[in-house]
Amino acid sequence: MKTPFIAVMVALFLSCGCADFGPAISKTNLGNLEINITAEGLDPRAARIYIDDVFIGNVSSRMPILELKKGKHTVKVELGGAETCTESITILREPNHQVLNVGMKPKA
Predict the structure, then answer these.
(1) Half-sphere exposure of 1 (CA within 13 A, CB side)
(2) pTM here?
(3) What is the largest CA-CA distance in the chain?
(4) pLDDT tens across 47-75, in order?
(5) 7-49 pLDDT, tens digit each
(6) Considering the chain, what is the average pLDDT of its residues?
(7) φ, ψ for residue 25, nearest 5 deg
(8) Three-state SS string across 83-100, please?
(9) 3 in the Ramachandran plot: left (φ > 0), alpha (ψ -120 to 50) or beta?
(10) What structural domains does the chain harbor?
């Protein structure tokens, strides 16, 4: 007697939309960009990050992830004693996680 009851409850649970076993797709227009900076002989924590010419701040090694609107952006990294690095990147919306590795070169 318990088997039909359980089957009916599982069918109701699945049909009501309470359980979603499909891929997790975000409906936001935001995406994640992780920025990792290396700079031989310099402290990468002092690097200044600009997105579309707007100063964002310094990216720490503990929290290098930015949340940006989807679309094309220009990422500029400045660090005293190193050449400025500018990259164009297209941000995809969640659940995509994009990584930008920036190797700062010392000024000649």
Answers:
(1) 0
(2) 0.69
(3) 82
(4) 999 999 999 888 776 666 888 888 999 99
(5) 555 554 445 444 444 444 556 788 888 899 999 899 988 999 9
(6) 79
(7) -120, 125
(8) CCEEEEEEECCCCCEEEE
(9) alpha
(10) 24-104 (2.60.40.10)
In angstroms, the CA 55 to CA 28 distance is 24
DSSP state of 44: G
What type of residue sits at position 53? D
Residue 5's SS3 state is: helix
DSSP state of 58: P
Among 33, 35, 36, 47, residue whose Cα is nearest residue 83: 47
Side-chain-side CA neighbours of residue 52 (13 Å): 8
Token pair belonging to 53: 């010419």
C-alpha distances in Å from residue 101, one per residue of 6, 15, 30, 75: 52, 45, 20, 11
How far apart CA 1 and CA 4 sit, in angstroms, is 6
Nearest to 36 by CA among 72, 65, 6, 7: 65
d(Cα 90, Cα 69) in Å, to the nearest integer? Answer: 10
